[in-house]
Specification:
With 155 residues, this protein is of the alpha+beta class. 20% of the residues lie in helices and 28% in strands. It has a single domain, classed as Roll (ph1033 like fold), CATH 3.10.590. The strands form 2 sheets. Strands 2-7-4-3-1-8 form a 6-stranded mixed β-sheet. A two-stranded antiparallel sheet has the order 5-6.
Length: 155
């Protein structure tokens, strides 16, 4: 099993939105980065765990946990001209973009903000979300970092 951190802007889609979905499951769509697409395709597995990270908000940070519940498959928004994520170069025969389905696990009792993560940078050394200039919306998380963050959240 692998661990991940997946970012979403809470005004677009939040941990509460995921919890409110039918079966508390949602496709993680709209990713338009080849590195992340390749992670979905080559590294994500059913049963992997992910932090749900709220980005671009007053208190960015980790607000909940979710589980990966599907293998990667073509993101249908790439084919929809009405979608913000439409890609005219993508075809049904040769889709460019993939997604995975995620399932709500739980909200954290105490969200772990980016400021808190930075306070523990020594213990979280190498965590990609703390690296300068890193803007990926999906990043791997080392098992030791996963466990440490759950302790910070007093899970």
């Amino acid at each position: 099993m692998a661990y991940w951190l997946m970012k979403s802007e809470p005004d677009a889609f939040s941990i509460d939105d995921l919890a409110a979905r039918p079966k508390q499951t949602e496709p993680w769509n709209g990713v338009r980065n080849y590195q992340v697409r390749n992670m979905f395709r080559d590294q994500f597995r059913i049963g992997d765990e992910s932090f749900f990270y709220h980005s671009n908000c007053d208190a960015p940070g980790i607000y909940g946990l979710m589980k990966i519940v599907s293998n990667a498959y073509p993101d249908p928004t790439q084919f929809d001209p009405q979608s913000d994520y439409y890609d005219p170069k993508s075809t049904q025969e040769e889709p460019r973009w993939l997604l995975v389905d995620v399932k709500f696990e739980r909200k954290l009792k105490h969200p772990v903000t980016l400021a808190t993560l930075r306070e523990h940078e020594k213990q979280l050394q190498g965590m990609i979300v703390l690296a300068k200039g890193t803007r990926l919306s999906v990043t791997p998380v080392k098992p030791a970092h996963w466990d440490y963050i759950l302790k910070l959240a007093r899970a």
